[in-house]
Amino acid sequence: MAPYTITYFAVRGRCGSTRIALSDLGQEWKETVLSFDEWMKGDLKAKCVFGQLPKLEDGDLALFQSNAILRHLGRKHGAYGKDDKEAAQIDMMVDGVEDLRLKYIRLIYQEYDTGKEAYLKDLPDHLSKFEAVLAQNKSGFLVGDKVSIADYTLLDVMLNHQVLCSHSLDKFPSLKSFVDKMSARPKLKAYLESDAYKKLPINGNGKQ
To answer: Model pTM greater than 0.85?
Structure first.
């Protein structure tokens, strides 16, 4: 029996980084897939702590909020740094990725037809921050010398941005190398090349 159960929609969305993490960490999971019509009925939504998905079940533990889910998996499977200092740096990086993710989500769901040009013009300023961190940390990871949840969430957002703009990483060699190396990790490579990943749209409104 799979140790984890994910409840979410048939999109990558907010669950992309969780699936990436589980794959790379060698964990099995099953999914309860909801249609948007089912969700709008409100029965499940009323049972969600913050009225949102994804939901991760780990035995009798039910977690909501995608970054809380990531942190739980990181602590449990050794992807949260070697000490408190690294854990704090990982938290900082996760929050930095979240800032960019929120801007991306706003573009996709609110400003896609009117704001894409401005978004892409502003994007290098955001990417340069991660480029600098990766260039300084020669390990190829955001923090320390081992993969962490910060790497999983950054990879998820960068893969989305490569679809949004195929040349978005061309001027950021460390960031591009990071995406290439992470995507080539054997378990991750297998997942990213699977139908389970490829068949899922990135976002719920069909824009990407």
So the answer is: yes
Return the CA Rg of the chain. Answer: 17
Separation of first and last alpha carbons in the chain: 34
Residue pair 208/201 in contact (Cβ under 8 Å)? The answer is yes
| d(C-alpha 141, C-alpha 151), whole Å | 7
Q: List 29's β-bridge partners, or say none.
A: 4
The Cβ of residue 149 has, within 10 Å, a number of other Cβ atoms equal to 32
Phi, psi dihedrals of residue 130, rounded to the nearest 5°: -70, -35
- Please write the tens of the pLDDT for every residue from 154-199: 999 999 999 999 999 999 999 999 999 999 999 999 999 999 999 9
pLDDT tens readout for residues 34-65: 998 899 898 899 999 999 999 999 999 999 99
